[in-house]
């Protein structure tokens, strides 16, 4: 009857959690981690108050920023880099594929930088309209003309002449204009 020398091994007791309790614990951990991640992200990218001038063509999302930087690094070393929207995507595609660049022989971009530049240019350029020829000069670009209504432009338009009206063009700022054209830089 009594077993005095031997002990029965007891099984460890299992703690049973209710599904609702487990869900609440996981949810609380996710909220805490999300809050910490948001704080870390905000510390790295402080948002500045809006100013009267953006300082570039447009604000570029992070996934296109490196492509824009590579575009500016490669193109603005010889001439003023123009906004992608001035030419259609097909023009940019052809320019990236051809080492002959307006009479100069260039070292062509190779991948991955070429792909990054292409993603930036193709995202911010326009598409050709039906029966529109691919323009390679400003005076043939429908969009360039639309951006400059009632502006008498020299023919052909030299790329470096942008600073006449856009004093910040050499810094890729086409938003500011000289007093003669409107907002008084």
Q: Which percent bin holds the helix content?
A: 25-40%
Give the overall silhouette. elongated
> How many angstroms does the end-to-end distance come to?
103 Å
Number of E strands:
2
What oligomerization state is this entry in? single chain
The SSE order reads HHHEEHH
Radius of gyration over C-alpha positions, nearest whole angstrom? 30 Å
Main beta sheet strand tally, sense and closure: 2 strands, antiparallel
The helix-and-strand class reads mainly alpha
If helices are DSSP runs of H or I spanning 4 or more residues, what is the number of helices? 5
Mean pLDDT: 76
Beta-strand level of the residues, as a percent range?
A: under 5%
- What is the strand arrangement across the widest sheet? 1-2
Residue windows where pLDDT falls under 50 for at least 5 positions: 43-54
Structural descriptors:
185 residues, two-stranded antiparallel sheet, 36% helix, signal, Dihaem_cytochrome-c
Please outline what is shown here:
InterPro entries: Cyt_c-like_dom_sf, Dihaem_cytochrome-c, Multihaem_cyt_sf. This protein has 5 helices and 2 strands, in the order H-H-H-E-E-H-H. It is mainly alpha-helical and 185 residues long.
Structure characterization notes:
This is Cytochrome C. GO terms for molecular function: electron transfer activity; heme binding. It holds the Pfam family DHC. 36% of the residues lie in helices and 2% in strands. It has a domain at 62-181. Helix 2 crosses helix 4 (113-124) and helix 3 runs antiparallel to helix 4 (113-124). It is an all-alpha fold. It has helices spanning 19-44, 62-75, 89-97, 113-124, 142-147; strands at residues 100-101, 104-105. The protein starts with 18 loop residues before the first helix and ends in a 38-residue tail after the last helix. Strands 1-2 form a two-stranded antiparallel sheet. It has 5 helices and 2 strands.
């Amino acid at each position: 009857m009594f077993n005095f020398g031997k002990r029965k091994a007891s099984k460890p007791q299992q703690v049973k959690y209710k599904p609702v309790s487990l869900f609440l614990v996981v949810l609380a951990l996710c909220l805490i981690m999300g809050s910490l991640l948001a704080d870390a992200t905000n510390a790295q990218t402080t948002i500045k108050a809006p100013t009267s001038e953006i300082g570039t063509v447009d604000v570029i999302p992070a996934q296109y920023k490196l492509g824009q930087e590579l575009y500016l690094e490669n193109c603005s070393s010889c001439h003023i880099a123009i906004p992608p929207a001035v030419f259609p995507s097909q023009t940019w595609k052809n320019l990236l594929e051809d080492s002959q660049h307006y009479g100069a022989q260039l070292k062509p971009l190779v991948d991955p930088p070429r792909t990054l530049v292409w993603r930036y240019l193709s995202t911010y350029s326009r598409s050709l309209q039906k029966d529109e020829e691919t323009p390679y000069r400003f005076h043939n670009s429908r969009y360039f003309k639309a951006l400059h209504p009632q502006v008498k432009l020299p023919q052909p338009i030299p790329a470096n002449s942008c600073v006449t009206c856009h004093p910040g063009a050499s810094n890729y700022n086409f938003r500011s204009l000289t007093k003669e054209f409107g907002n008084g830089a």
